[in-house]
Design a protein that fits this description.
A two-stranded antiparallel ribbon has the order 1-2. It is mostly helical. The longest helix is centred in the C-terminal third of the chain and has 30 residues. Helix 21 packs antiparallel against helix 22. The chain is 67% helix and 1% strand. It contains 25 helices and 2 strands. It is globular, with a radius of gyration of 26 Å.
């Protein structure tokens, strides 16, 4: 008779598998109207963290009653993650470190979810079902992309731009969609190569599914015109070739060859789609131009070499990047200004190095070594295949920032590595945690679910507020969970303060707004905030401070139209015509004011 704890773990694995399937089929693809952005500003990411909180609660609810099952790999990653947390303790450069807290909590939440998976007794079949769930999620996204490209009409419910016609799925961006789809395509080939041939009927159905993912995915990769996705597909499939060759020698499978032939066929269909439908086609020059990334990487490397040990401080990348780039541009004849609103250097290692210095680099290097060491225990062809599956997202993380844009990418990496670890890793049994420890873990999981549920509702409240022309301040005060949208809520609240102060000629409130803007600009520099603060100081009769602020803004952003002499002159003339009889809503268009805080999604996107 099987021991009771093992039976409980098997039941736990079935429940966890149902949750993963529900997330892959439904939760991952939630669309609600939103204000665009990255991370928790996108509803499908909040829904995803709600599911992760639920699965963490299920896996770790009774963790104090038995010894913890984990692995040598997980313990190593926990140690590496502790190294990533250490820069928060730097006393001299962590004044805005709170803005890095979401990504650190995301890392910690991923590790707890991984630990919850380890407490489930997944056998080989269960681990394979986890991979099926990932492929199911990719299949839904491919289907959504096809519907977007071929079926949606203008003014559709999804807010999809039918003039651009880039089938970005739920992700709102071509490269994020491409790396997700390409990972699914490589995974489909791997699953096929390791699929049991009997019973015959289920094998045929799965073969048809894998073939459909390969053919339709290839169409999407062409339509998305994503360099990162196309490179990920080439390298991923290339790393699978030894396993493909072994399988063909053993089985001489004509069906496998026919299915692989669907990839070039899908590419041809995609090329036809580019020509047959009116859409925004990218020039072939994208394959020879760095799209601004060379300048970003070059200056990012200069920043790290200037402060290699401790960096510029967590959360300070955007402000530090533009400040140092402006100084370098002044010292370098012929240097051009970069685009605005860039919150990431489009390379994950460079990002951590700039903000945290050497320690985060060592932490990331340790995680990379741990993954490679785990794969070293896998047969060579299988190891290359797993590297091929992970390659598209890894390449994307070195050219942009998919983990900050998309929780599904982080979820997919965690599940893929868990499957490798569960099959080939070295297991470790830890002592049963003390009974009191269950409460912090439960509080984390339940709090995460409540936070994300309220955040989904708050996002809808803020979206209605931003899109409503007759917005009133009471709507802003009614937002139930402003923490997810902290910067934007703070911007909107102080924008009301600015409008009221301008109408009432309240010098104290105008100076208070300028003081807030100064603090805000230390972590989120925006040309529009500089512009509004300049007008506030001008109206408060502080011309020296106003001119000093304007000079600083023009130094950082020499190409921004809003800061040019004609725009400033027009705004000052309108400022003198403001009267107390005007409505606050009229000021935005009359002066005009900068009234919409755009997220830093990366200029090279």
């Amino acid at each position: 008779m099987m021991y009771q704890p093992l039976l409980q773990q098997e039941r736990l694995a079935k429940i966890m598998l149902v949750c993963v399937a529900c997330y892959a089929l439904l939760g991952m693809h939630l669309y609600l109207p939103h204000l665009f952005g990255i991370g928790l500003q996108l509803p499908f990411n909040m829904a995803g963290w709600l599911f992760v909180g639920l699965m963490t609660a299920i896996g770790l609810w009774h963790w104090h009653r038995r010894r913890l099952l984990t692995s040598r790999f997980w313990l190593g990653v926990v140690a590496a993650s502790a190294v990533l947390w250490l820069p928060f303790l730097y006393p001299h450069n962590n004044s805005v470190a709170g803005h890095a807290l979401p990504r650190m909590l995301g890392l910690t939440g991923g590790l707890l979810f991984y630990l919850a998976l380890q407490q489930c007794r997944f056998n080989g079949r269960g681990r394979r079902y986890l991979l099926y769930c990932l492929l199911l999620a990719v299949s839904v996204e491919i289907l959504l992309g096809m519907v977007q490209f071929f079926l949606l009409e203008p003014d559709n419910w999804f807010g999809y731009n039918t003039e651009v016609r880039s089938p970005y799925g739920i992700f709102q961006h071509r490269n994020v969609m491409a790396s997700f789809v390409v990972t699914g395509m490589v995974l489909a080939v791997y699953l096929w190569l390791n699929e049991a041939k009997s019973p015959w009927r289920p094998f045929l159905l799965k073969s048809a599914w894998f073939a459909a993912v390969l053919g339709a995915g290839a169409v999407q990769v062409v339509l998305l015109q994503s360099r990162a996705g196309q490179l990920g597909l080439l390298l991923g499939l290339g790393l699978l070739l030894p396993l493909v060759w072994q399988t063909l020698i053993k089985t001489r499978s004509k069906r496998l060859l026919a299915s692989l032939a669907l990839i070039p066929l899908g590419i041809l269909v995609g090329v036809f789609g580019l020509e047959a439908f009116e859409m925004s086609k990218r020039s072939l020059n994208i394959y020879t131009q760095a799209d601004g990334r060379f300048d970003i990487y070059a200056h990012g490397l200069r920043m790290w070499l200037e402060r290699p040990w401790f960096g510029y401080g967590y959360g300070s990348f955007e402000s530090s990047f533009y400040q140092t780039y402006a100084l370098w541009r002044e010292q370098t004849p012929g240097a051009e200004a970069l685009f605005t609103e860039m919150g990431h250097p489009h390379n994950e290692f460079l990002f951590w190095a700039i903000e945290g210095g050497l320690l985060p680099l060592l932490g990331l290097g340790l995680i990379t070594v741990l993954v490679l060491r785990l794969l070293h225990r896998v047969p060579f062809a299988q190891a290359l295949a797993w590297v091929g599956i992970l390659t598209p997202i890894f390449i994307h993380s070195q050219t942009e920032f998919p983990f900050y844009h998309s929780l599904p990418h982080w979820f997919m990496v965690l599940v893929l590595i868990f499957v490798i670890d569960a099959e080939y890793g070295q297991r470790r049994l830890l002592p049963a945690p003390p009974a009191w420890s269950r409460w912090p873990v439960r509080a984390w999981a339940i709090g995460l679910m409540l936070f994300m549920a309220s955040g989904l509702y708050a996002g809808q409240q803020l979206t209605r507020y931003a899109q409503h022309e007759g917005r009133v301040e009471a709507e802003l005060k009614a937002v139930v969970n402003p923490l997810i949208w902290y910067d934007r809520v703070a911007f909107y609240r102080h924008h009301w303060q600015l409008k009221k102060a301008l109408l009432a000629s309240d010098r104290a409130q105008l100076l208070d707004y300028a003081s807030w803007a100064r603090r805000f600009l230390t972590h989120t520099p925006r040309a529009g905030i500089y512009y509004n603060a300049y007008l506030a100081l001008t109206a408060a009769r502080a011309p020296e401070q106003a001119e000093q602020l304007l000079a600083e803004a023009r130094r950082l952003y020499p190409n921004v139209q809003l800061l040019r002499a004609a725009s400033i002159k027009r705004a000052r003339e309108r400022l003198e015509q403001v009267s107390a009889e005007m409505l606050p809503a009229e000021l935005n268009d009359f002066i005009p004011l900068y009234d919409n805080l755009r997220p830093a999604i990366g200029g090279a996107y």
